[in-house]
Design a protein that fits this description.
Layout: H1 12-22, E1 27-31, E2 37-41, H2 42-58, E3 66-70, H3 75-86, E4 90-93, H4 100-110, E5 112-118, H5 122-125, E6 136-140, E7 150-151, H6 152-157, E8 174-180, E9 188-193, H7 194-208, E10 215-218, H8 230-237, E11 240-243, H9 250-259, E12 264-267, H10 269-281, E13 293-296, H11 303-313, E14 317-322, E15 329-333, H12 344-351, E16 356-357, E17 362-367, E18 370-371, E19 380-385, E20 409-417, E21 423-428, E22 433-435, E23 438-440, H13 442-449, E24 455-465, E25 469-478, H14 486-493, E26 505-508, H15 522-529
Parallel strand pairs: 1-11, 3-4, 3-5, 4-8, 5-6, 6-7, 10-11, 10-12, 12-13, 13-14, 25-26
Antiparallel strand pairs: 1-2, 8-9, 14-15, 15-16, 17-18, 17-19, 19-20, 20-21, 22-23, 24-25
The protein binds adenosine-5'-diphosphate.
């Protein structure tokens, strides 16, 4: 027997309409290139978003057409983010930090008909625009629009809000698109449906308890995995949204967190490491008492960092694990209610783990012999299933083997699952060190090393070894003025690891190369260091 409930479509128009009807007075603030703030209300935002929808239609866009963006995090980006899917189009965020050749591939493969670009990013954008098939390029921000482009403000001024109508778009149609960085092979397109976004925004809000009184500041770029769903989740409940614009340096971010009285913020570990150093160097300079959680994800945050924020600065870190293919949040640790009854020590230990799957994310891990038990010991590749997880890549069957025959997505992450369901990421499958037939987790070694007072950053990679096939090598950046020897670092690690896990080699460098979103680029390190055979300690 079927239930007798309405077949209501879970879509982005419903998210905007709610904000339109309920939260007109709430604010959205963006840092402008000159560091001043631009602030307007949700009512202004909704009106401009509606005019954008009308304008894109007038340009000839049809349902399903892709609308590229090449922008920092700010209110106009939010207008496109929400506006394109509300109009029946598909937002396609391009990554500012990719090589122009990659953006040519991604925009062309994605089939983008229009591109919205920040005027301040024109020198970068001009490197790939002529090689793409955009029919219109729309220039956003203050100043003159470059030749051959349409000025965003003029476009909106020419559009009539009264021509806008909310549409009840089928929830399974596409709403947004994002390419994963493709460390192997070509970048691959993830195509989010309205339904996936609506369900994900709901679950993220439920798990983090986000509400209209919150002030959110996503440092994570809107071109990186949907900015972890923050723009949709915040709009759904009318939170004040604060965007950092192009200013990502620790001091300016800290000023923004303080002056806007931010309650919830999100970024990758490298951003928070910079923030932590600034806070440690300037005790008492910023009043961050409004912050109720800093979410961190995209790479494993060292426990020492989570603890330093809590103990030295009274800041609560929530740790998340996710993937572009998962909309992107998969698991959370330290979210409201997860640490009731735990001692401080237990809570920090838990929060260094990737966490519990959020609702509608099912997990299991598979080793060479089949599914592994949830015993906190057995390692296997994490597989996931859920309504906000990709079922295929866009127009590509190159990676069809990422899905199992029974429809689970293979994450490529090697994990252990604890008896209580906590996921612990040991490594990306391609980063693991396989020494003498056993796996060594580079993530665990890195996190431990970054707990040493002299170490600013550490990345561990596998290098070929004749006897063991691979051995771990640690690449270390020291804090300014600090000194430590390989022997001291090995001794520091020794109490917590089996002897054969300890790196044989330490290389001290000034900087660890990072990916476009600020993760360690281990492929580059492997190229640099894997040539010479590892010397035994
Ligand atoms: P990219 O491949 O560009 O890094 P994603 O941002 O989608 O694309 O990266 C997802 C991957 O990032 C995950 O598969 C995992 O390896 C890593 N990751 C994300 N969050 C965490 C975390 N909290 N701890 C460890 N690894 C993480």
């Amino acid at each position: 027997m079927d239930g007798l409930m309405m077949d209501y479509q879970l879509n982005v128009p419903a998210i905007l309409k709610r904000a339109d009807e309920l939260y007109g007075d709430n604010e959205i603030a963006s840092r402008l290139p000159d560091k001043s703030w631009h602030t307007y209300t949700y009512a202004d935002f909704v009106s401009r978003t509606k005019r954008l929808v009308v304008a894109l239609r007038k340009l000839g866009l049809e349902d399903g057409d892709r609308v590229g963006t090449f922008m920092w995090n700010h209110s106009q980006h939010l207008e496109v983010y929400i506006g394109a899917p509300v109009g029946g189009f598909v937002t396609h965020t391009l990554n500012l930090r990719l090589h122009p050749d990659d953006n040519v591939y991604i925009a062309t493969h994605g089939g983008d008909r229009v591109l919205l670009v920040d005027k301040t990013l024109w020198p970068l954008a001009a490197q790939f625009i002529p090689r793409c098939n955009f029919e219109h390029v729309i220039a956003v921000g203050a100043g003159d629009a470059p030749e051959g482009t349409i000025d965003y403000e003029e476009l909106l001024a020419d559009a009539n809000e009264s021509d806008f109508a909310y549409r009840d778009l089928p929830e399974r149609t596409a709403a947004a698109m994002c390419y994963t960085s493709g460390t192997t092979g070509r970048p691959k397109g993830v195509l989010y449906s309205h339904r996936a976004i609506a369900i994900h925004a709901l679950t993220v809000n439920a798990c983090l308890g986000i509400h209209a009184g919150d002030v959110s500041l996503p440092v994570v770029p809107m071109f990186h995995a949907n900015a972890w769903c923050f723009p949709f989740a915040s709009t759904m409940v009318g939170s004040k949204q604060v965007f950092p614009g192009p200013h990502m340096d620790p001091e300016t971010l800290l000023d923004g967190l303080e002056s806007q009285r931010v309650t919830i913020t999100a970024g990758v570990p490298t951003i928070w490491m910079g923030i932590l150093q600034a806070l440690d160097a300037n005790p008492g300079r910023w009043d961050l008492s409004s912050i109720r959680m800093m979410t961190v994800g995209g790479a494993a945050p060292p426990r020492a960092m989570i603890e330093a924020f809590g103990e030295r600065h009274g800041l609560h870190v929530v740790h998340g694990w996710g993937m572009t293919e998962m909309s992107p949040v998969g698991t959370l640790s330290g979210a409201p209610g997860q640490e009731i009854g735990l001692s401080k020590e237990e809570a920090y230990a838990r929060r260094a783990l990737q966490g519990l799957p959020i609702p509608f994310v099912e997990i299991r891990a598979r080793g060479p012999e089949g599914l592994v038990p949830w015993d906190g010991q057995s390692m296997g590749e994490l597989e996931v299933r859920g309504p906000s997880i990709a079922s295929a890549y866009y127009a590509s069957d190159e990676a069809a083997d990422r899905w199992t025959d029974d429809g689970w997505f293979k994450t490529g992450d090697i994990v252990t699952i604890h008896p209580d369901g906590f996921v612990e990421v040991q490594d990306r499958a391609k980063d693991l060190v396989k020494s003498g037939g056993e796996w060594i987790s580079t993530v665990a070694l890195e996190n431990a090393l970054m707990g040493h007072p002299a170490v600013a950053e550490a990345a561990v990679i596998a290098v070929p070894d004749e006897r063991w096939s691979e051995r771990p090598l640690a690449v270390v950046v020291l804090k300014e003025g600090a000194q430590v020897s390989p022997e001291e670092l090995r001794e520091f690690l020794a109490p917590n690891f089996a002897k054969w896990w300890l790196p044989d080699r330490f290389e001290f460098v000034d900087e660890i190369p990072k990916t476009a979103v600020g993760k360690f680029r281990k492929t580059a390190l492997r190229e640099q260091f894997a040539q010479q055979p590892a010397e035994r300690a």
